[in-house]
User: Which sequence fits this backbone?
């Protein structure tokens, strides 16, 4: 998430989403799975570079991947699909801002490419509360307890 895209969103909502995103990302990365941060660079100039940085509330670890994009769909004209295929990823947990733009378009882009995407419950933001409700109503959603359960080994190898 970048401050340039968080204007008009209450800080308490940003903080809450970051808490859920960081918790889920830590579970995912601690189980050997890749965490990818997407940075939107559309409109980036030398003068406004700092508002395009990932906000400090989001934990980025050395093993995480960072990908830049210029379009709402993170798959469009990026290496995202290839990175996911190379990592053997099939199931994507999507979080961030804006639910009605980048998050939704990336979710749809994942579906179109044969991935199984889900929205992280309490991990998406929008300037419009009704967009969050509609996103949760119309898309697949996962909670962090479900992620924790799915990451546990259930059967002897």
Assistant:
């Amino acid at each position: 998430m970048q401050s340039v895209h968080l204007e008009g969103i209450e800080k308490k909502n940003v903080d809450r989403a970051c808490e859920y995103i960081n918790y889920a990302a830590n579970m995912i990365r601690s189980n050997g799975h890749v965490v990818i941060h997407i940075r939107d660079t559309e409109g980036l100039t030398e003068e406004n570079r700092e508002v395009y940085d990932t906000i400090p509330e989001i934990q980025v670890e050395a093993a995480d991947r960072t990908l830049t994009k210029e379009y709402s769909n993170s798959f469009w004209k990026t290496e995202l699909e290839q990175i996911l295929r190379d990592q053997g990823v099939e199931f994507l947990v999507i979080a961030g801002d804006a639910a009605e733009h980048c998050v939704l378009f990336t979710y749809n882009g994942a579906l179109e490419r044969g991935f199984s995407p889900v929205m992280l419950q309490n991990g998406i933001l929008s300037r419009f509360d009704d967009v969050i409700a509609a996103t949760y109503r119309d898309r697949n959603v996962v909670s962090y307890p479900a992620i924790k359960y799915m990451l546990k080994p259930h059967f002897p190898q």
The longest strand covers residues 116-125. The longest helix spans residues 11-30. The chain has a mean pLDDT of 91.
